[in-house]
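**Protein record**
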Amino acid sequence: MNLREKMLKGGAYLIVRQGFGLIVGFIGVLLITRAIGPGNYGIYTTAYGIVVYLSNLASLGAHVYLIRRESEPDINVYHQAFTLMFLTGCIGLVLGLATIPIFEWWLQNRVFIPPLITMLLAIPLITLAGPAMARLERDLNYRPISIIELTGQIINYVIAILLAYHGKGVWAPVTGYLAWQVFNLLATCIVTRLLPRPTWSWSLVKEIVGYGAGYSVSMWVWQLRSLVNPLIVGRFAGPVAVGNIALAIRLVEALNFVKTATWRLSIAGFAKLQRDYLRLKRALENAMLFQVLAVGPLFVFFAYTARWIIPFVFGDRWTGVLSIYPFIALGYLFNAMFSMHSSVLFVLGRTWGVTSFHMVHILIFVGSALFLLPHLGLIGYGLAEVFALLSYLVIHLNLVGLFRPHYTDAVLWFLAFSVPLGATYVNLPYTILLLIPLCVVVLMKGPRQKVLEYIKFARMGG
């Protein structure tokens, strides 16, 4: 099977997995949030955000090193990665426990602390699963990955839902999450037949950390985004606001399932093209347009139906989601155009280019949130998302030193999908007017023809 066939097959598995995951996740979040309410969900989200950040901190980018490594890693490389991940996972756990007093002081509410302490136990499990999962991804073997991840997701929600409807509150999603991580570690090791064994080689450790340091620093900076809601919103607006923003983000990420799948596939796929800039440029341009077309219609559809879906499905306690959804969806739609830029720069070893973009983005986002949240509440968080879009100029400038991608098609469709996102703020029949830009672009021959050509190309397998 050639690279194109592997990419298409792997992408199909991931998209199907993300599609099923969307359904499972929607049902799971629906049932859990209705049972435990915004406050408990906000407490869980705060602990979850901190744990995910610390586990990413502890991973050191080892999984990306294993995927990107030009020569095939032998069994000793994987054992070394397991050993390193166990040590860094334990360090992450200790670091998390040591910073509990700081979190308690900053959040000014002890209700966040017991779930956080419990969920910190998942960090070594998460880091240990990384090398085995990387082996599957390196081979573009996404079928078992899809099965493992979907099964783990189902285990998570089944346990959480059962406990939520037995009155366990915040401990329902906490327990489900821990069970998920235990299953994920066991399943990946069994499928890959990799049994972690202690091994130590300073040369291998230096090689892993040497690459991982550049990737990790960049991702550590970017993932500070995930702490803005629990730490800044949690401080100034409380757990109910955290819960509303978390649900809005969760819904946008669920609608964003195609982008999540294609970004994951891109690291392995672009790595195969890293010596051919012309093919890499074409792949990037196709990916940008595909990302916007894949997520834009879903975001717009939800914007027009959210005023009925949110209160009917989740309950009247969650109507705060309506005020924040357009801002978050706009940020994710814009990111859909540029996420592949990061993949290309990572593959080419230009990690500083990604890191500089992430630093500027976080400075604008965090600074805006700190200034606006105390005065505007949820809307302040949304405006911070919009101001942070200015940072994408940085990653564009880092890429043009290699080649100049064409943005015309992707930007045109982005603008067409952006205006209707404001439908949650406008009453009928005026919401119809917001669709005018989208209708204009659809009727334009050039953009329409480009989309039809792209669809034909995709059906033919490239």
Notes: The chain is about 80% helix and 0% strand. The chain has two domains: 1-223, 234-462.
